[in-house]
Specification:
The protein has 5 helices and 6 strands; from the N terminus they run βαβαβαβαββα. By secondary structure, the chain is of the alpha/beta class. It binds ligand DLZ.
Amino acid sequence: MPQHIEGNLLAENNDRFAIVVARFNDLVTDRLLDGAVDTLRRHGVGDEKMSIAHVPGSFEIPIVADRFAKTGKYAAVICLGAVIQGETTHHEYINHQVAAGIMQISRETGVPAIFGVLTCQTTDQALARAGGKAGNKGAEAALAAIETVNVLRQIGEK
Ligand code: DLZ
């Protein structure tokens, strides 16, 4: 029988979680943050186990998330932002750099850095994904963080 490793969605007592949230498009990102914090609480993470850093825009997320990861104090870092397409191609540069930067943190530190950054064409699309009819990306990112931490823990215990 193959061995399946699956992470449950309950945070362990000592797991601390860092959140980095962009202020740009805060109508959206405030809701992502609410979704993430609420989900962490519901899955066993006390407020004293959460650290939240606010950054100007999504472009600044990776540098701060990297700093959190390198402290060695956090089980995972949850990155939240909303990049909304404007009249220029600015968003493309931000999207690619932020996604690559967040992935690089996981690879370099071994601490999961979770991509909770919305990349939408309109504010309405983003709001739909920030607690509207298409769910809440912040809440999804929090669940992904807990599950990934638990998968990694299980692999470490084998
Ligand atoms: C400048 C900018 C623009 C045009 N659009 C967004 C966006 O849709 N979402 C976002 O999170 N940030 C945006 N920013 C700000 C950049 O992320 C960054 O904060 C600035 O370019 C300063 O480095």
